[in-house]
């Protein structure tokens, strides 16, 4: 069989295997240079979906990127300051790919025959002639003014960011006068700084996770020789994971950043299980034979557990949120790399370094381990004799969590995900607080004849109707409003009049709201609202569309960032349950197909309990669902299934040796309970590094994963013995199953 061949190769050629791993390690370093960071719509919206196609169509034809210059000074109406700002705007307009730059000087010159005001009094007089909305937008306070910079429509994200850097260079070269400060903000600046913060966060998280796990290993794994070896193996596994990502073109995002500490925890868990079995075998067998037994017995057992873990990650593939899918994909790559490195690396290292376990009675750590083993055995024995009360209490708490789950709020506001002190977040919040939401609610109008008279009239009537019904809407802009603006405030009465009016609208202004004859946009300006309120307003507006139907052949859909983030609420609410149910279905089918024994479904019992307990933990700690915590159910199934399956594997091995279910439960828990506890605590330390992230979405995910690992340990050590006692069906039934030859667990437990 496969593992026997692997064992033979490793025992005969340990140096060659170590050299192979070194080559893979170096290849991983090369591959990881191709990994880049991504944020924005690609991480939240599936671009192959209808919503994604609409979003891309809208951004390509109508959306031009923009930056906001937040200019603070002592007196925005001071003639000397206005002269400086006028020069700055002129320089900004000359930047390549800048479409326009509008600020207070332009507007004042526009109503003053092209001249800047010569005094503050003249500036105040001119300001009084401006429309209130324009005045409030450009001069929101007496110490602040805004300059709105529009980038050419249709340019790429990279070009837009280049424009941003060029504008920043212009600001620095102009040397603002004393007392004047200028900040560049906007969505592009926000996304770029978010990527920088994410990159830094990933490095901090990995270093912190490795450090925490190293300390935990040094303390809890003190009874083992070479106790930091698992940390070395998982580090190599992580490099290989980065390398595969680079060669496969998988980029980093929030989901992937959150996945890496999880992978560190799972990877080190595999190494701990392998080393614990190797150390056990070395105590009564020569090293080559111990290596062979470890590979043949533990290799398949952990592979089975790893495959079960993969079921939870595979369930994430049905999520409509790309960052959740990428979490699942990278997790699958990571656990495969870590398992492979451990399977080959640990035996090779042991053979090359002549691994020798510490003496059985060596030190306080060994004594503590033996005492802990004894306590676990006693607890398991008592639970196995009285399993029903334990299961009833666990099920009662889990049921409470399932019932309470629907009451946990869902948070999809990207602004709450990022570090609270991120400069562009603070400046963007400041702009939003003064002039309202930076992102309006756009409605994409599509169909043949969008510029027909009937459609233009409908746009006008619908805009007025929906504004009158929703106080959250502060304005509307469309082809209809532009026609009225350049036609004396009224709509023409026929198609010829519409065509003539459209010809009078400046093309630069019109292209943001009309694209040929087949597409247009209605922009609804809104006040600043929480995401739940935004979602409600969007649904009410679309209900208005359903009541005031557009002309035949015309379709109207919400789109843009407004629709993307509000739709996340529904996507999360739907997919979090679907991922959990699919995870249970996959793990159940996997256990039945692989083991074909009655007691093989016993891990499902603690898994159901743990998922229910997670909801209780989130509710008690006040943690909301986000795109990351939405995958907690399926991730928990993956992580917890490993512990429960390893426990079941060892139970099966003890059954084949002794034929006594009670003894099999006691000795199974005793022999792997410590290893599972250590690996669980080390895994929790790896996950806890997420809590250190300055991204709230990652930090909250870290808290929930630590809780999930803690519950997983309880499920494996407390609930699993009770499940085995009940599902095993008594001594006779279990003995019969244990004698079957078709079970893959004949390879043994961990």
Q: Main traits of this protein?
A:
750 residues, alpha+beta, 4-stranded antiparallel sheet, 29 helices, disordered C terminus
Written description of the protein model:
By secondary structure, the protein is α+β, with helices and mostly antiparallel strands. It has 29 helices and 9 strands. The strands form 2 sheets. Strands 5, 6, 7, 8 and 9 form a 5-stranded antiparallel sheet that branches. Strand 7 and strand 8 form a beta hairpin. Helix 2 runs antiparallel to helix 14, helix 10 (187-220) crosses helix 18 (423-435) and helix 12 packs parallel to helix 14 (322-352). The radius of gyration is 32 Å and the shape is elongated.
For the CA atoms, what is the radius of gyration? Answer: 32 Å
| Helix segment tally | 29
* Strand portion: 5-15%
Main sheet summary? 5 strands, antiparallel
Low-confidence stretches: 729-750
Mean pLDDT: 83
Q: Please report the total strand number as a whole number.
A: 9
Can you summarize this structure?
This protein has 750 residues and is α+β, with helices and mostly antiparallel strands. It has helices spanning 2-12, 14-32, 41-44, 50-61, 79-93, 104-110, 120-127, 132-138, 157-174, 187-220, 229-248, 254-282, 287-314, 322-352, 363-385, 387-405, 414-417, 423-435, 453-469, 479-485, 495-504, 507-510, 531-547, 560-595, 604-621, 632-658, 661-688, 696-727, 730-738, and strands spanning 66-72, 98-102, 144-151, 181-185, 441-446, 473-477, 514-515, 519-526, 555-558.
